[in-house]
Amino acid sequence: MAENQDKAAEPIIIKKYANRRLYNTAKSSYVTLDHLAQMVRDGEDFVVNDAKSGQDITRSVLAQIIFDEEAKGHTMLPANFLRQLIRLYGDTLQGFVPGYLEASMDTFARNQDQMRNHVQKAFEANPALANFEALARSNMEWFENAMRMFAPFANNIGAQQGESGETPKDGETKKDVELDELKQQLAEMQSQLAKIVKDK
Prior knowledge:
- Helices cover about 65% and strands about 10% of the residues.
- It is of the alpha+beta class.
- Strands 3-2-1-4 form a 4-stranded mixed sheet.
- A hairpin with a 5-residue loop joins strand 1 and strand 2 (about 20-25).
- Helix 2 (about 35-40) packs across helix 3 (about 60-70), helix 6 runs antiparallel to helix 7 and helix 7 runs antiparallel to helix 9 (about 175-200).
- The longest helix is centred in the last third of the chain and has 26 residues, at about 175-200.
- The relative contact order is 0.09.
């Protein structure tokens, strides 16, 4: 019985061939990116491997799914948010960004059902808007607390800039500003996700 549970917990293996076709080894059938997107929505875990090299290419396939969704007009990623991410590639804070984004989305995911209920009630009775706003404030407080984790690194960067002759504007370093903008873009993304939930 335990062995069966272990097998059930294992992710489904998807093989990607040179002709870009995707093969679901669990169902012995070819699938599309739309199928994989639905699997993600259904909570099915999978790993995509290159059929020839065996290399794990799950991240690039998931990124392709997001790109396709954005191209269809289901936009959730504001241009400024994407610019902030691009700026952070190769930056000293790059290593901290994935964990921060993952923790932010995990928190948002835990609140999804509660947010759906508040959105639904908001259209039934105006007083429910206060509950939704309280949840939004709670999420923003969590973001702000998470951002404080970066403060020591931002201060170090500020010190380095001071040594190089650059003067921080209004007591803020460039990284302080960029992280504030990133936080703002995450809030905008959260707002757009809530709108999509409402439309569904």
